[in-house]
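Sample intake sheet
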Amino acid sequence: MYQKTTFAIIVALCFLGAQASTAVEDGPTFTTGDTWAFGKEIDLMEEGSSEIDELENEITRELIDSDNATMLENYTGLRLDSFELDNQAVLGFFYTGEIIDDFDQMIHMQTEQSLYSHTVFGTKFTSMLPPAGQHEIALVVKCEGEYDEENEECGEDDEDATIKLIDNATGESIAMQAVNTELSGGMHYIAKVTQDTWWTEDTHELVKTQITVALGASGEITLRNVPNITFEGVPLLEALGSDPIFECEDGEEIDFDDVNDGYEDCWDGSDEPSDDDGDGSTDQIFECNNGDTFPLDYVNDNEWDCEDGEDEGEVTDSQLFNDCDENEEEKEARCYENVDVIYETAVLAMEAEASINLLFDFGDNPMNVMDLPLDENKYWEGELERLTLSGDIGGKIDISKPELSICPDLDCDQLPEMQELYSAITDVLQEMHDNETLSITVDRNGDGLPDVITEWNDLFPMYIPETWMDEVFQEIADAAFCDDEGSAEEGEECDERAEEEYEKLNLRIENNRFAFGPYNLHDVEDFEPLPYAFETGEKESIKSSDGTSYEGYQVFPTTHCSENNPDRDEDDCNNEDGDEEDDRDDEDDDGIIPGDSRSGHDGEDHDEEDHDEEDSVDPFYDSEIIWFHDAETGHPAYINMNMPNLRENGYSLEMAPISHSEAEDKVEQNADPENPDKTELIEFDSSETIDESTDELPGFGIVAVGASLLFVSRRFRK
């Protein structure tokens, strides 16, 4: 069991080592300071510049230069003066190598493979909006032409009715002020694999290797000065009325916009007109609120047939401006509302990092990872007779205390609800601590007692596994291994060595991290040497985008049954192949394949369908990394990542050699897993004081206000 698991780790190790190694047996001597590097950074915003330009033009056309925007300003004084977009998106991959030193007759090399992605969006709107506070406003609608007294509205042909929004206390237009509204955020992801390797100075074989895989991620979102407009405590959308829905004949509900659009959205198809009886007329009927009926094909045809426009999805249950005074003589109506204007803030951010360190020590029997000089279809092998493992794993999650305008002075710790939560967490931790069955404590000061939690920073950053004690490992051991024959599962013998080997692992907590080892795998009873083998493919050549030609070999982990093995035992390998086929047949006979969720009745067709669907959404499916090694030195010569599903026409990321200093600078700036937030957010000046004491979330701005005014005005003109 131990050897199979370890063998898989070793194969993976050797695969990394083959990429990172520059070991040679009869080649040149490498000296301290030798470096090499590859890398590429892609500006995703530059590649999508045409789409971004179109977005900016669309915002300008619709929200600044359009007739609707002009009409809204004339009615209310509300307007969007300007906007600013500052979006950034970069994707980078860099590979560096360096010979650190040659102490103790060993060559110390270090390689790093860094992948980072930084996406930041920043948007600033400068608008003319009312100041924060309560406002009693009046909507004044005055007919310039005929007034329909019977229906209490302007005449049908009166398109010049005057609509304005005024301060009811002063009778003047509402005083507006410039407000900067900020909507920004970002996502950052970093993956870095650092491999330190030590090679014998004379034979250039791998003595030990330390691998660190570090992951870091962060995300943030900032909303500042977002107008939250409520009408007597009712949010704007709620006051406008809910979005219209259509009820199908079977009771199902769909969006009203989906009716009569050429596609059946109702399960019974009742949202689309049809003539099932062949009488030449539509069978489905739409009924207005007043009882009038029309064929369903009158719905969503851009023409009002119902008097209130319900057939075109008009909302008729608005709560806005229902308190009206009408002056028929002056052909004027005034409708009143109490409006609360608050400018909201919400700042949310989090970071997370995790890493694993593994040290493989091969003792006095080092590995021949790279048998140089390389040649086509070359095969080499060996055995690991000694292997010592050690390592640690850990990480943390750091969620910043939110800044919300609903919190007193933007300090959410002051909320009674938060204080109650902290007190409850403290009590739970104390109870766990007092229960010796499983001791789990938050003990940042190291006094052996649970901390008293009174604020956000008492909880975060949360380390993994900071809250776990040594007793946890014993619980794992007790669950994994039996103490005597009676505790073993029926039909199984108790493995008396398991607990002994578990003790040798020396599992522990060090500096908020799980740690183990050093564990001598070769001291395990019945340990057998672990075989390994590598091979090269055919010699490959490629011409880069700048016209430079590169050639080399790819190195792969393999087995003794490789066709390139000159000592391949045909009988032995044929028997192994037959055993593998028999195993697969047995799995099929059982009807259950591990990891396969197919049911017995739909067979392979269903699985293939699921597979195709999965492939279609995975942009990295069928991706291939081409990694050439120089034949003489083993140095990487050329790297290319081919991702056929990343874009419509695929995407190829070419990485030709670059200067080591250039690569280091990019990695230092953009690929620190402990500090993933490397790209700065857009900086805006805030011209509006943030109001406090509201339970509403950020609401709507000038577009929503304009929609409400236009809706109300329809009472007086169609």
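Comment: Residues 409-459 form one domain. The two ends are 81 Å apart (CA to CA).
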